[in-house]
Amino acid sequence: MGGPILGFCAGRIDDADGTASLPLGPSLDQEMVAPCSVNGDCEAPLGASTMSLIYVNPEGPMAVPDPEKSAPQIREVFARMSMNDSETVALIGGGHAFGKVHGACPTGPGPSPAEQPWNPWPGTCGNGTMKGKGNNTFTSGFEGPWTTNPIRWDNEYFQNLLEYDWEVHIGPGGHHQWRPVKKNSSDPSEPVANIMMLTTDVALLKDPSYLELVKLFATNQTALDIAFSHAWYKLVTRDMGPHSRCLGDHVPPPQPFQAPLPPPPAKKPDYKAVTKAITKALRTASSALPGDTVGGKPYYGALFATLAWQCASNFRQTDYTGGCNGARIRFAPQKDWPQNVAMDRVLAVLAPIKASFPSLTYADLIVLAGSTALTDAKAHKIKFCGGRSDANPNETPFPFQPPRVFGNKLVQLKDNALVMGLTLREMVAQQARLRSPSQQRRLGYSGSWTENPSLLTNDYFKVLLNNDWVNTTSAAGQLEMKAVGKEGIYMMPTDLAVKWDPASAAIAQEFATDSTAFLAAFASGWNKLMVADRFKGPAGNECA
C-alpha cells in the first residue's frame, strides 16, 4: 500500500495452545499477577488500560468521549510499550492511514468463539454469502474510514484532523464517534468528506505536544515516513529480544530498543587461569567488602554466587530481555535496585582479577565467579560458557525489570520461574542456592538459615521442612520467618511458600531425602539461566 518499511525481523515462535497469554487476562492467572480493580483504568504491568482491548478504549476513558482525558491515558499506556510522543502519534496516525472500523450492523457480530466455537462471530446483518461480510461486517462497533483513500499510504489523516472541527455523535454500532464539520462554513449543507475520527484521534488535538506532531506530520510526509517506519518496526519487533534472534534478508541494523551489545573481545582469556584466581579470592580478605566468615576465615563464595544470580535472574523468556550478558548490573538503574544492594562492592572484590585479564569481560567474570563458587561448594556439573560482552557505560539505560514481587509469595515463586524460563522443580532447587548471612543482614534481615554458606547441600530443605516457623519483623522492618524454639535460624517468606504449596512441598520432600536429585535439579536450573540470554537465532543458543 506504499507504506514505509524499515525492515523485517523474522523468527517468531507460535505458542502451542495459548496458555502463555493467560496472564494477559481476563483470567485467574492475570488476577493473581496483574489484577485490574477498575476495567478501563488498568495499571501496569498490564499493557492495555482495558481488558480485551489492545491499548486504550478508542471511545475514551471508561467509554466517555472526552478527548482531553483521553490524551494523558494514551501517553501513559503507550509509555508502557516504551513509546515516546513522536512514536505514539506516528503509530496512531500511520496506522489509521489504512482501512476502516466496522460497526454498521446495529445488532452486532453474533455469538463469540466461547459461545459458538464452530462458527464464531458469523454476523447478524445481511443475507446469503454477504451475511456478516462487506458492509455488514461488525468488529469494533465503530463505523467508517479515517481517510478518503484508505488503501494507500499518505499523511491525509493528519491533514483531516486539522482541516475540520469534530462533532461527537452515536454511530450505527451504538458507540460514540466523531464526524467532520467544516470550519467557519456559512453553508451547513456544504458536503464534507465521508470520514470519521475516534475519541483517541481527536485527543491528539487536545495535547500541546501531540498537536505539534500532528502539524509536523500533516505538512512533512518525509518526517512521518521516518517516524512511522522506526516506530512500527519497534512495535512489532520489541518482544523479539536482541538483534541476534532475527532471521531473514531484510533485517535492519540493531536498533536502540534491542539493547545492542558490542562484540565480545576477539581474544578469549585463559578461563582456567581466571578460575584459579577466583578460587583464591573465595577465601582472601578484601578491603572492598567484608565477606562471610567460615571457620574463622573470610569466605566470599555465597556473595559471588549471589552476584551471578542477581545479574542473570532478570532474564525474561516472555520478551527475551535481561540476563547477565552485558553486565548491566554495573550501571543504573540495575545497580540501584533494592535487591542489588552492595553488589557493586562484591564486584569490587573481583576487580583485581578483571585488571589481571584485559580480555576478560565483566559479564563473563560475574558468571564464572558464581559458577566457581558453586563448584567449590560441592555443586555438581556446573557449566560455564564464555564469550559474553560488556555494555557501554554511556548507553541509554534500558527498561529491564527485576523479578516481580508479589504479596502472595507462592504467586511470586511461580511467576518468577515462569518468566525466567525455569521449571517449578528447577526453581525450588534454586531456593537452596548459597545464601550469604552478611548479605541477608545488608538486605535488612536478621540472618540466614545457616551460618555456613560454603556448602551447597540439601540441608536447606531439611531445615525448612523439619521446623515450625513464626512470622517476625527484623530490626530493619523486613518480614521474616524465625524457627520456633531456635536462635539465629531465619527464612524469608518466599522460602515458606515452598513449604505451603503442595506441588513445591512434594519437590522439597524429595530433595530433602535425595541429595543427588537436588544437585541435578539445581545444576539444570543454574546452567539454563546463566546462558538463557546467549541467543543464536530464534530458538538456538551459542552455548548449546
Adjacency order of strands in the biggest sheet: 7-8-9
Overall pLDDT metric: 95
The quaternary organization reads as: single chain
Shape: elongated
Number of E-type strands = 11
Per DSSP, what share of the residues sits in E-state strands of 2 or more residues? 5-15%
Which regions are unreliable across 5 or more consecutive residues at pLDDT < 50?
A: none
Number of helices: 18
Report how far apart the termini are: 42 Å
Can you write the helix and strand succession as a string?
HHHEEHEEHHHHEEHHHHHHHEEEHHHEE
Helix content: 25-40%
Largest sheet: 3 strands, antiparallel
Class from helix and strand fractions? mainly alpha
Rounded to an integer, what's the Rg over CA atoms? 28 Å
Provide a descriptive summary of the structure in words.
With 544 residues, the chain is mainly alpha-helical. Helix content is 35%, strand content 7%. It has a three-stranded antiparallel beta sheet with strand order 7-8-9. It is elongated and about 95 Å long. It starts with 27 loop residues before the first helix and ends with a strand. 38% of the residues are buried. The mean pLDDT is 95.
